[in-house]
Write a structure and sequence with these properties.
The chain has 224 residues and is of the alpha/beta class. It has a single domain, classed as P-loop containing nucleotide triphosphate hydrolases (Rossmann fold, 3-Layer(aba) Sandwich), CATH 3.40.50. Helices cover 40% and strands 23% of the residues. It contains nine helices and seven strands. 47% of the residues are buried. Homodimer. GO terms for molecular function: ATP binding; dethiobiotin synthase activity; magnesium ion binding. Its EC number is 6.3.3.3. Pathway: Cofactor biosynthesis; biotin biosynthesis; biotin from 7,8-diaminononanoate: step 1/2.
């Protein structure tokens, strides 16, 4: 089993669509894929969450959600407010291990790298699993700071950063976005592996899976 953790530099940078895109690219290479979302927030019981979006876009049905909290907050805060138990690192690792028959297990975090998914962060999980982290970044202003903070934190912990992906590349990028695309690898010392066009989360499955492999360069394909 190969495990790849997917974190954002912050919230709303396109982690779920990026997770789906990686899943589609891996599936196109003939790999079996499973996706874990340890903690889902802001979704009522029985409603479709992020994993439903991944399945809708890719057809991947081997998915695992370990905890769900009703309010759209950091999972640990949402758990406390709901009077529900927080996820532990041990039960999350055990859940991921149930997917071990897949060639690749993608684990989508919540928000940024240090957001607490329960009693732990995605960084803690990466350290425990010895797994690399793919960082999904925004395109516009602020992304250089957020991306460097994230990659420096990974490096300080001895966790390998698999690379950066821009989670939503605008149809008409402004000057900041164009400059950031060049500056992100220079500032962070981490390769920019691709950019996912904005709006593709609304595409149908055939269109999404057909296009997804082309959003990444060969480095990401080798990683998978």
């Amino acid at each position: 089993m190969g495990v790849l953790l997917i974190s954002g530099t912050s919230t709303d940078v396109g982690k779920t669509v990026a997770t789906a895109a990686v899943a589609a690219a891996a599936s196109a290479e003939g790999r079996t894929v499973a996706v874990c979302k340890p903690a889902q927030t802001g979704i009522a019981p029985g409603e479709p969450g992020d994993l439903a979006d991944v399945t809708r876009l890719t057809g991947v049905t081997r998915t695992l959600e370990l905890a769900r909290y009703p309010e759209p907050l950091a999972p640990d805060t949402a758990a406390r407010r709901a009077g529900m138990p927080m996820l532990t690192l041990a039960e999350t690792v055990a859940g991921i291990e149930t997917l071990a028959d897949a060639d690749l297990v993608l684990v989508e975090g919540a928000g940024g790298l240090l957001v607490r998914m329960g009693e732990f962060t995605l960084l803690d999980l990466a350290e425990k699993l010895g797994a690399p982290v793919l960082v999904v970044a925004a395109a516009g202003l602020g992304t250089l700071n957020h991306s460097e903070l994230t990659t420096r934190t990974l490096a300080a912990a001895g966790v390998r950063c698999a690379g950066l992906v821009i989670g939503a590349w605008p149809d008409e990028p402004d000057l900041a976005s164009e400059c950031n695309r060049d500056d992100l690898p220079r500032i962070t010392g981490t390769p920019l592996l691709g950019a996912i066009p904005a709006g593709v989360g609304q595409w149908d499955r055939d269109r999404f899976t057909g296009a997804a492999p082309g959003w990444f360069d060969q480095d990401l394909k080798n990683l998978l």
